[in-house]
Amino acid sequence: MLETLDQVFVLLQHWLVGFLPAVLQPVAGVLLSVVVIIVLFPALFALTTVLERKGLGRIQNRIGPNRVGPFGILQPVADGIKSLTKEDIVPLSADAAVHFLAPVLLVVAVFMGFAVLPMGRNMVLVDMDAGLLFFFAMGASTELSVFMAGWSSRNKYSLLGAMRAVAQMISYEVVLLMSSVAVVMISGSLSLTKIVEAQNQYTWGLPHWYIFTPWGLAGFVMFAIAATAETNRSPFDLPEGESELVAGYHTEYSGFKFALFFLGEYLAMFSISGLGTTLFLGGWSAPFSFLGWVPSWIWFFSKLLLSICVFIWLRGTLPRLRQDQLMNFAWKFVLPMTLLNLMVTALWRFLGEGWERWVFCSAILMLAYVAMGRIGMRSGHIGPRRYRYAE
Amino acid sequence: MSFVFYILAALTVAGSLAAVLLKNTVHCALALTVAFLGLALLFLDLDAQFAGFAQILVYIGAVAILVVFAILLTRGSETPKDGVFSHTWLVGLVIAAAVFAVLGWAVLGSARVLPHETAAPVVTVRDIGVALIGRYILPLEIVAILLTSAMIGAVIVAMHDKEGAK
To answer: B21: domain range?
Structure first.
């Protein structure tokens, strides 16, 4: 019974596809999964907008939306209808073709990332040998659509926002990749299903998730920082800093194209949370061995929603960074730490089983963290601003 | 040669042609990205997952961005009235044709030297990684040193201005 519940979506897919002739079955199976992904994550997006507005409201001592439907839960429906019926304005001097293509390409590239995420036992659309590489390749191609949006709008705020966004995304992409490489070094595979399976083991009822190792914890923290920056979420939301840039690269977008950007941003958040869950938090595996009977997909989506709650919490709590802080933090603090983390991971791999590796690896990471923080703050690279031209 | 190959080849060729024939420089850069994408898809069509994804990650994710940044930061994206065609296009054409001829000659010649394989070899990403770190470690390191020195050179070129300004 529980086995069936765990595999309920897989079985449902097989049952539905079974009505078709055998020739069409593989194609129909893939199409069905694609449709489920395309429907499920926008639905989650609708849920998250309510959650975010309510949560932010509570953090800022307001009530949040409470007029549409019971407790305001139908707010996303109203928002969706509003954005569909709004006029689609394209600036006269804008590059119409590129202006149109940018949001579409963004959403397409973001959707592609979900193809390799294992959302439960046997629940992955394409089990690719190079799944992680595919995910990052798709993530990297969103940068170009952000640039296209900013450039084609012929608006200085759009262009500035796009330049900021691209510079930020490139800087933090290095960190994102480097912190994930540690996981690949230990699990020995780029396939996300294999990475999850490597973590789906238990000692004394506790899971072998990578976050519960010194290098994994450090890697996860850096991955989370980079993921927040990569999705342009607060406190790294300079590209759309409304106090400086109106709305950044989507200033000149209205109606449904703007909704597409909004959707793309949230979908990117979901997919990067899913990747973080897969790499460090054990993907669909249960947090305790005695909870193994709970269906695997429940665990995946609980972890996903939990990380989204953390994103919302961060947005409600932290002030926005400045551009120089953002860049210095990425290149002078996080990137050296990820490189060190790679060394520590190699050390962990070759020290063998035993308590020594726990002590050594933790000590190296802690010492480096404290020393780099102290030195960085003192020399002013990370801490207070030094004005070069305006003094 | 399958149907998919012809579609991808047409995409790649169209992208490359647009990259040299369009007038707006940013459009050229975007067309070049289409050509990169076509190449990546060709690799994927040949079951070379690693090469295909690396092509997307490096060329679309980084090189294309570098190109558009270079265009925007150097002289603006405004198109000159008379287009951006070089006066020495004839020489360029000759050089391009010569390079193409040499490459074509080498590729066609290699078909006779290499053993004719009937089945596509199965190469996992793991094999590529092992080969890169094992057998081909020296070329990898040489490329790494080359790139690092290029980057340091770029930083030095950029630093020079600032010292002059002080």
So the answer is: 3-112
